[in-house]
């Protein structure tokens, strides 16, 4: 019996030892659901996060060394594209979708607007190889990285191995992206009872809970499901969302519900960046909704708000801005590493 | 299950052949129909290798993922000293592995067997040329995969074997081309019904030599 207890004790010690270093880089905010990402398969370390950050900011990932991840995902806009409705890649080629903000990625179960990517680790393959984005191949990137003394060193520090593999590269990019957690907005302080909404924000919060939170569910402000929120199809892009993937007509015009955290800064809005301002978005929910078989049931009736209510709802949405996220030096260009 | 000392001294090899001889890449072959084909790329995954005796599993390979490339020899080790009468394996990668993130070894995405624009492993890649294909440069391309219903293309293969130091499993490409109707279908590049059917037909053409 004693022996068993002893073994159990050792067992629990090693468990603690395993969790503690992880928590230094990753704490799940209080009252948030459990992340979907399986950290046990890719445990975070300072060195791996640093490597991932360098890769994220380095145009070495594109065929002509001009485009990095941050070209389309810049920190000050919550890691979306600055000011373009559709993303731009190498040689100024235009994509067909708006780059999503990269926030709280560990909680998604599928990635991309249509869920084409099934795991965060696999996400980076898409832009690296897309002819209109970075136009490279993973094998090509490996060869370039292997030639670089800076990267051989970074990989060695991270993995104890200076042989660069696709797995290491993708996992390191995930590590950095996993750290992009935004949980420090005014909304969060209010929920933690450390701050108070203004009356206007408070009224906006009520309107939000009534009209929006079935999809933009707290605390992540998305349920990460695929829904049709009634946007008319763009006649040039002809993007039917998730149906392209599943070939199921039930999925026509369904896109992943985006988070609304930092929404004040992540314009333009929607999968094709068709709206510039939050007021345009509210106008859509009030009078732009296009009816079709797959339209979400809760949007069958338009969300009509008077001008005071619109101001209130927008005031609330702005409480989701998290300056500690947008200006966190840990998420910014790694000068120390890349300018050497 | 078996003692530590049991040696992994037996091997299984999996090789594509054309009729009676080893497959040569970039070589023009005549089909029985009189048409000709040339294979430029042939790679596929074998996974979940298991030995059975009288219908019960007697050994399962751990971490069992093997990329078989026509241009390279392979030899998968299995333990000796076990009685078995069947070998079972998958053609392709199971759905759990497909959704588990970046893997290493034969599963590393740099192996060219992973789709980039839509996640998932390519279970079998076959590329080449034939006069049967009314395509650019008479090319055909089959990237067969798909791990999700309704387009799950993973196939399980079970073959009867005699205990042997060297088990030789072959895939006869001559028979594969007799099945694939190249003049009608020569370009399958994503999870779909056609990919499932092709995978199912190809899986039937593995045999023990």
Provide structural commentary.
The complex is a heterodimer of chains A (340) and B (209). Chain A is mainly alpha-helical. Helix content of chain A is 40%, strand content 1%. Chain A has helices at 2-25, 46-57, 69-72, 120-123, 125-129, 138-147, 149-159, 166-178, 186-191, 199-211, 243-246, 278-288, 307-318, 323-326, 335-338; strands at 226-227, 255-256. Chain A has a two-stranded antiparallel ribbon. Chain A starts with a helix and ends with a helix. Mean pLDDT of chain A is 88; it is low at 1-23. Chain B has one domain (4-208). In chain B, strands 3, 4, 5, 6, 8, 9, 10, 11 and 13 form a 9-stranded mixed beta sheet that branches. In chain B, strands 1, 2, 7, 12 and 14 form a 5-stranded mixed beta sheet that branches. The longest helix of chain B has 11 residues, at 193-203. Chain B is globular. Classes of the chains: A mainly alpha (340), B mainly beta (209).
* Element pattern of chain B in H and E: EEEEEEEEHEEEEHEHE
| Structural shape of chain B | globular
For the largest beta-sheet of chain B, the strand count, sense and barrel status come to: 9 strands, mixed
> Can you tell me the residue ranges of chain B where pLDDT is under 50 for at least 5 consecutive residues?
1-5
* Count of DSSP H/I helices of chain B: 3
Low-confidence stretches of chain A: 1-23
Question: How is the largest sheet of chain A built, in terms of strand order?
Answer: 1-2
Radius of gyration of chain A, taken over Cα atoms and rounded to an integer in Å: 22 Å
- Strand fraction band of chain A? under 5%
Largest interface: A-B, 27 and 20 residues
What number of domains of chain B?
A: 1
Shape of chain A: globular
CATH architecture of the largest domain in chain A: Orthogonal Bundle
What's the alpha carbon Rg of chain B, rounded to whole Å?
17 Å
Q: From the helix content, strand content and strand pairing of chain A, which structural class follows?
A: mainly alpha
* Main CATH class of the largest domain in chain A: Mainly Alpha
